[in-house]
Give the backbone structure.
Amino acid sequence: MTAAPSTAARIRLVAGREITTRARDKGFLISSAVIVLLVLGVMVFQLLSGGSGSSTAIGTVDGGAQVEQALVRSGEQVGTEVTVTEYADTAAARQAVTDGDVDAVLVGAAGEDPQVVVESSRDGAASAIAETAVGALSVARQLGEQGVSLTPPPAISYDVLDPSTEDRGQAVVVALLGVVVLYALYILFGQFVAQGVVEEKSSRVVELLLSTMKPWQLLAGKILGLGLLGLVQIVLIAVVGVTGALALDVVDLPGQLIGTVLVVIGWFLLGYALYASVFATAASLVSRQEDLPSVLTPTTLLLVVGFIVSIQAAQDPGSTLATVTSFVPGMSPLVMPVRIAAGEAAGWEIAVSVVIMLLAIALVVRIGGRVYAGALLRTGSKVKLREALRAERV
Amino acid sequence: MLEFDGLVKSYGDNRVLQGVGFTVAPGQMFGFCGSNGAGKTTTMRIAMGLARADAGEVRWRGQALDEASRQRIGYMPEERGLYPKMKVAQQLAYFARLHGLSSADAAVAAQHWTGRLGLADRRDEQVQKLSLGNQQRVQLAAALVGRPEVLILDEPFSGLDPVGVDSLAEALLEQCRAGVPVVFSSHQLDLVERLCDAVGILARGTIVASGTVPELRAAEGGRQLRVVVPDAPTGWAGAVPGVRVVSEQRGDTLLELDAGTDDQAVLAAALRTGRVTHFGWREPTLVELFREAVAVPPAVAA
């Protein structure tokens, strides 16, 4: 007849079922789309709000090349890009202001009686730029009348003593964004694992499953399958994010961006292994989906605290809180990437944190596996942790 | 041979099984009977590795069942369980693969059993959308789909309508004819009597009676002889030596014969009274055998 499938084959079968079932799941597809949109949204926001700074449109009447130059130059001084439009007469220019085509109109800038037309307030960037330009034009004209010709001031070169600080800021933003994605994925996939475990218990299909395999094989297949799906998802998000960032030109140092993204993906694997095991173990204690929150809350709280600390760490990566929590298993996957991105974590610190995390995973898998095996066939009311550990294992 | 040998199991102070043992030959249909809570489910769960026996073991072809050999057993748990949101055919193919079938074979097997059990037009429906009867069929298909060498079914007939019972019975008999030993538990004793080659009755933690139904009848000491003699006077049989009258109603007489008493002597006595319209051994039904077997003996009850 047929040969019994090997352990590896069984785990593969379970993992395959998890992947195909979840990949068709509406909740999964929607949440994936939301995360990708979130990442793209953050980049577009960066593009619109920061980088090259603000811009303004100014109209002129009786202007000319000189006036336009003066406007652009005075805009540059305050970090604003100025686009200049010449209008034939004051009426057309007023209309343009009313319509919002331009923020202000400068009439007769080179003459004796310059006038600025604005829609409602004279306290705007556009009117300030116009005033500066009129001043500059007037000084230039008067100096010209005195026979003085102006040469532009010499260009200043900057000697930046710590160039990494600002770039690190960008890496920290990327890391923080990564941590948001990590947090979302831990919650999402932790829930998937937990719901899957309870579904098998509540539908009692688990008895049929355990007549063909060991509990640990079922658990391993489930965690590996969903983990693979999670990995595919985070890599997809990373690819979309990095490609988008490069295409939109919102990052200055692509190498650093990719490095940070890889660090985040690495920590995803560590954190997922821990949280998925804890969630599965906790979920095996209950038999109804309604009872899930009561057993998942302690772990979820740890996740939330880690998330909050990581945001705090982004502002002050050298703080004691950030340093300490970057070693705490469960919180380290959220805090450490931020510290690494900020350049605050020494190599040995990262190594120690990873080792602690690996030890924690080993411990959770060992104890969790026993609890899972002991609790899986006890349906009905919630199983106490101690009972599950004492229960006979099949 | 599928051998259950000396299974002992206690849950706390509750000694559920106290040495349960019986044997099922290949191609034999074994009906496993017992009162509620007698330990039928525990016995089957021990065979499937879902509970651990304190002592004793279950063997198939002389080898104690282990993880690998359990792959070849089709099992239907008492607590029905399937993935509620998975489609019927997909689900069956999945279970077939867990039993070691290749992907292609599993799809064929799922197709075959859904057709065989009247689920052909339900293949692409989620299990949770099916009626209870159809879910039950899928459950049975899940036990059969892995080409089992042995079938262990806990209450497979409960919840089925007569048509469902027939198609399930036919499927099981077919498996038996192919040489598969089938063990199933049931409270429907008429069904057990009709289908099974052998019966085991579990009571008080042990098998109190087992064997073929005729064997059980033979073992049941006082067989009863029913004689209908419409014209006979009351008490006509009292004079025959070695005969005890159990009941007598207008000539319809139920007699118990001592060992060694010749039934032909009874017939002769009956004929002397006049017309004999019925003379025959009354076969106790399995229900009666069951009641007799599970009845607590006075010595134990005390």
Summary: The CA atoms of residues 282 and 295 of chain A lie 6 Å apart. Chain A has a mean pLDDT of 84. The domain at 54-145 of chain A is CATH 3.40.190.10 (D-Maltodextrin-Binding Protein; domain 2).
